[in-house]
Amino acid sequence: MIQVENLSKTYGDHIALNGITFSVNRGQVLGFLGPNGAGKTTTMRILTGYMPPSSGKATIDGLDVVDDSLQVRQRIGYMPETIPLYDEMTVTGYLRFMAAIRGVTDLEPAIDRVLESCGLGDRRHDIISHLSKGYRQRVGLAQALVHNPDVLVLDEPTAGLDPLQIMAVRELIRELGKEHTIILSTHILPEVSQVCDHVLIINKGKIVAEDTPDKLTSRLDRGARVRCEFANPPEDAAEKLSAIDGVAAVNANGQVYEVSMAVDKDVRASIAECAISNGWGLLRIEPISMSLEDIFVQLTTSEDSPEVEA
């Protein structure tokens, strides 16, 4: 289990992390999202023992990442975005080297285990420089797993892969998530919905949202939008819709109108009544659900970056 409490990191006057708190349980895959400079990499470097925090505390299975650094590192597998592979080595030779420096005593069974779990069995004797980008990513995962860590920290694991390779790596991460605690940093937002069962969005060093993807969407959709289409809307249709109690904004595009409703208001019946009584020819009213991309943009581009309570 990962437990982070009031974690902060400053570089001179710059605040990279500003008192973040979160936890990740065993068997959970956490999607760690945020724009560039939000504090994701800083958090990962603290958790993996690369650097200490300025204040606050982070523990892995109850062990402090600063006071018990060596023990913590034994429990973590880290796959950085740029994987430090040795191109002149074979896959097996590289994994044997990584296992040895991590203190794995029973080398061959450990190597066989990760070769199988990462789909590298038929590539074990290949020179790393001869591997495709997808297989190099698999080798990166294998080196992070070779000492059988409790926690995996994966930074952009599908960056630069083709669609088939992305599907294969995502499926592998889903399988690994059944037995490991995983923090997954990614800029590919659909990946979060497909791989992660929990999402944490960070912006300007602070957590602005944390929940499952579905629940996060539901909570932020309280001020919902609907799309309306009319056969014969008058020129002042947008004005008339805006006058309905509970309507926050109206955006017109020909015969189609997107209506934003005030928080916890449902004005669909009022829109229908207005359209029917005035003979607009109501063709449809349908909800417009927020995607994870919408949520990400809303929470990371506004000036105040409002925090969403879990």
Q: Can you tell me about this structure?
A:
This protein has 310 residues and is of the alpha/beta class. Helices cover 34% and strands 28% of the residues. It is built from eleven helices and 14 strands. It has helices at residues 40-47, 69-74, 91-101, 107-117, 133-145, 163-176, 189-195, 213-220, 237-242, 268-277, 292-301, and strands spanning 2-11, 14-24, 29-33, 55-60, 63-64, 76-79, 151-155, 181-185, 198-203, 206-211, 225-230, 247-253, 256-261, 282-288. The chain has a six-stranded mixed β-sheet with strand order 6-7-8-3-9-10, with helices on both faces. A four-stranded antiparallel β-sheet has the order 2-1-4-5. Strands 12-13-11-14 form a four-stranded antiparallel β-sheet. A hairpin with a 2-residue loop joins β12 (247-253) and β13 (256-261). α3 (91-101) packs across α4 and α4 packs across α5 (133-145). The radius of gyration is 24 Å and the shape is elongated. 35% of the residues are buried.
